[in-house]
Specification:
The structure is a homotrimer of 437-residue chains.
Chain A lengths: L2 H23 L9 H11 L5 E6 L3 E2 L2 E2 L3 E10 L5 E4 L14 E6 H4 L3 E2 L21 E2 L2 H6 L4 E11 L2 E9 L6 E7 L6 H19 L6 E7 L3 H9 L1 H4 L2 E7 L9 E3 L7 H11 L6 E3 L8 H4 L8 E5 L21 H20 L2 E4 L24 H12 L1 E5 H8 L3 H13 L3 E3 L4
Parallel strand pairs in A: 7-8, 11-12, 11-13, 13-16, 14-15
Antiparallel strand pairs in A: 1-10, 2-3, 4-5, 4-9, 6-9, 10-12, 14-16, 17-18, 17-19
Chain lengths: 437, 437, 437
């Protein structure tokens, strides 16, 4: 098999494996606390070594308090004939997430204020939550709602909201240095695929690949509920946050759209430039978005007290696609090839960060004679190819001030070629690494 | 009445009042000195408290000297039958402004070198001046010129050019701080409406509105003849110039064109950014122009010895519209609605400058829990509206370094919404003002 | 004759003279060493005083070694009937430049690996070199190659490759200061006209014009073989390089294309801004190119150890036009008018650099009264013309920080007008030169 075919096969295999993993997580009823999240972490932990942390209800985390733990066994709406019309067992989206328990009968008019639908998509169930205001409710398709006749209904939500724990998981991969790269994804959404089984799957597989590598940076993968999970983690890991050099929030990266990268609050951090560079050379329709304080957990990492260099990698952007936060964000909405492509982008970003060093040209006066080292074409009069050009760029800009990413950006040549050129020149004694001051 | 209708009625009223005020000033024969300017200041002084300053002829003001005072009673050209062909009483533009007195007869050929017309607009009278080279002349329509037959004419300019005073007026409105905002407009043009009764009217009404307010900045409104007036004021108010933080020259702001703002020499001063922001959010076709050393009195304020942050707000730009410096720049050329709109922009700019503070987020680690303070929507899963977004932006960027204008610019949200959000967050104990070092 | 016609005639004369000079250099077989280069320098030395430097074979110059000297008397391919099919005497491009001597017979199949053609341009001879890998070969038209029948051929290259010298020439024109401007062009290409007889001719004529002038800067014209010549010069003139403030490599400036200027590695050096300004005001289709480490001898001057402010002025860019490095780059490819235009641009750039001073406005508070100095129009109400505008710009920005080029760039007015305005204002006592700290 040619190397292109091997690569294509690897990508097919990776895509299928990622999609299968997402499929295994899909049915679990997750929320910001509860057994669903622990079951999810258990399945992730079957692939990568995961350390779990349980933070008790009531723990103060900055301006917030860890809420009660929510668990649910069943929920339904029955009509007067006893027929189940809306059933948790069919889709965990049917229940307003964090609903308080209830078991009663009521008339449709009264019930209606607890029902949520999407009139524009009458066959889709919306995803709704009420974490911080005690409430109960059902989410159903608009067609289901239209079919409800006046009369009495039995409503049952067999849930508990009690003191317990908020649970998150960490996979830590030590590197040569204590400087850390944070990969963070939210674990709280129930049966929604792109948001965020895609993020969980890609993060898990990325960790798996890094575990076998010899790394410069240490890597911390965080699997935690959105908002309160990231806040809890930040509140309990003050020392760790100081070691974070770069970070990515992974979410909505399994659909068929091209990439969107939302920059960190720092706007031009190395992670921002790295992701932009990789995307520019691999997805011409990728878009780089400015930072904004709404979104996923980059909100917390980029709050002014932390101001970490953490961006958010997405394909479709939350809130902009109709399937967002509905039952239509299902396993079919995920493309195996997209999942594999997202993993590949993450690997490329890691490779860039790992190799983004600064060098000093040891023969900085005029060009060194590449020809006698076999690093140049021997018959004059031709224009140089990309490989030779990469060598000339690295030599010209390796003054100890330009990083390889600087050189890649300025030359317009892909980082991988620039990095290869630097390796070759270093082997030939023409470059020396410059350690940061 | 709905608030929209109230606003519309207010604007209609303001427009009519502004136009009426311009109408009352229109007939007066103004120049850089003389009774016309004093009569103009008297009428302005009927609306706002104005302090008048008389600077004697011969006073040295930097590189210039206050010129003799010019006054005029009458002027005409009579043909040999005694018929008045060109009459000052019909339009004060008919006389070359600052003409020395003359009463004689001469042949048309000789007279012609003292006549000015606009061949391209044969029914318009041009506006011409000769302040610093003693001369006399008449401005007439080109059709009038074509009708002049060969022969003798009696020419009379009943003017005086004698030692006297250059007069300017100031309205000072003290605020909480000694820092000043300067609003400057030129009072020297005779019967020309857009240039600059529009500026005089809007400045007068703006002062009127500010007199009743509780202000952070002190405001100085300067009504002075162009060039020599601004130079005289700067020469005599050296200490005051050091307190000027921001300033605007108002001119040509009554016609029907969209806004043009010419930036100060500093190019990116707070006044430049403030006006640009307000215009961006209220007049999509507004244009921001770079500084140039020709124009109105911003030339003097932005001379390198002062380099004050003073820009120039216009609708049509001087010299670019055919009516400029002709009798066609009359009261019909002014639109009441444009005058009201210009006043409204000025008020918005003042509001921005008054409220452009810096805050420190008092809960800077992660987002504060807005929900429990009633500052967030309670059902999760929705994208936030503009008001909530404004709160998130203010919290995220309030690190003591970003002003509210910085935040408005970066977020793309109108300053008024950003400022409202800051007020609300401050009331909720989440923000604290940061005083400049 | 009007001044326009005089100018046009001067340009016609200059163009014809430049083209004649190029014609006189065309037949010489140049290489990076050898008699051809010395004969070329002799002809240049007939016009300007040139100092020659001979650097012996084997001299170490940074990472390189001065190669053996190559000379050639004759070369040909004869068929078995003794007919000369490829002849050095017809075009010196027929020999692979730096071919080692050979005289033998061989079959066509064997010979073919030593033959170079351009199939896409079957009537053109390519230009090829093999300086640093000993080899021999012939360059011929593709049609010649197609006509070669199977059989035995006599091949003869009557060349020598022996210890000798690398020769370069310098023309130094002292100015008031020791600060130098370097003009560099490569002398190594044989019968190729645009690349680089155009550069040699324009540099020679520019030096001729500067020799009669009173100059602020000292000028150094370097005529040296490409790459190894520039490297040799840099290696042997370390002290001189420290005095170089600005520099230009001149190449491919005789064809009919519009200008291309490749910026120095510093990207925004005074030479970069100067050339860009001059081109903007004289050739609307000129293009400014970013620095890149491939090209002509700016590669060496801009290597990180030197990082000199040296850009490269071209019309067509090397490698981008089909005639590049082929026999089609002949005297017809050169336009006399283009050569004259290139010379004129170089003179304008020199004029700019010579006059790019910083001034201080001696009347910086408000505008000085230009009118009483006869520097302003006397009848008010007109917009100022370009000359007056230039004066206002110079006064406004002459704060000791802005150079005249800064002022020309910011105002959009041509440097020559800005410089004239500064001279006039200085004569009127309004400006004073500010010496660099």
């Amino acid at each position: 098999m040619s190397s292109g075919i091997v690569e294509q096969k690897n990508r097919l295999d990776a895509g299928a494996e990622l999609h299968n993993f997402a499929r295994s997580l899909f049915p679990i009823c997750r929320s910001i606390t509860g057994d669903g999240i622990r079951e999810t972490l258990r399945l992730i932990g079957e692939r990568i070594s995961l350390k779990l942390f349980d933070v008790p209800t009531g723990t103060q985390v900055f301006d917030w308090t860890v809420p009660k733990e929510w668990n649910i066994r069943d929920a339904y709406i029955k009509d007067s004939s006893g027929k189940r019309l809306v059933e948790f067992q069919q889709s965990n989206l049917h229940v307003l997430n964090y609903s308080t328990p209830i078991h009663t009968t009521m008339r449709l008019t009264e019930l209606k204020s607890h029902l949520f639908t999407i009139p524009e998509h009458p066959d889709w169930i919306p995803y709704k939550t009420s974490y911080y205001k005690e409430n109960w409710g059902f989410c159903l398709t608009h067609n289901q709602l239209l079919n409800l006749k006046e009369g009495e209904y039995e409503v049952c939500i067999d849930s508990t909201l009690e003191n317990g724990y908020l649970t998150y998981g960490e996979c830590f991969i030590p590197g040569k240095t204590a400087d850390e790269i944070l990969i963070s994804c939210h674990t709280c959404h129930p049966s929604l695929a792109n948001d965020n089984l895609s993020g969980l799957a890609v993060a898990t597989f990325l960790a798996e690949r890094l575990l076998s590598r010899n790394l410069r940076y240490s890597y911390r993968f965080l699997f935690a509920p959105g908002t309160i999970g990231a806040i809890t983690w930040l509140a309990q890991n003050n020392e760790t946050t100081k070691r974070i050099r770069h970070g990515l929030v992974l979410t909505c990266i399994g659909d068929r759209n091209s990439f969107h990268y939302k920059k960190s609050r720092q706007d031009n951090a190395e992670i921002d430039r790295s992701v932009a560079h990789i995307l520019k050379h691999s997805d011409p329709s990728a878009k780089i978005l400015p930072f904004s304080p709404y979104g996923y957990d980059e909100r917390q990492y980029c709050s002014p007290g932390f101001n970490l260099a953490v961006g958010c990698l997405m394909r479709s952007v939350w809130g902009t696609f109709p399937e967002y936060h509905t039952s239509a964000d299902n396993l079919d909405f995920l493309s195996p090839d997209s999942l594999a492509g997202s993993l590949s982008i993450c690997v490329s970003v890691v490779n860039l960060l790992e190799n983004n060093l600064r060098y000093k040209n040891l023969a900085p006066f005029c060009e060194p004679q590449l020809g006698r080292r076999g690093l140049y074409h021997s018959t004059g009069g031709n224009t140089p190819d990309l490989e030779i050009n990469a060598r000339l760029w690295v030599l010209n800009l390796s003054d100890g001030k330009h990083s390889l990413l600087d050189i890649a950006e300025q030359s317009g040549i892909a980082f991988s070629l620039i990095s290869d050129a630097a390796d070759l020149l270093k082997k030939n004694g023409l470059l020396e690494e410059v350690k940061p001051a």
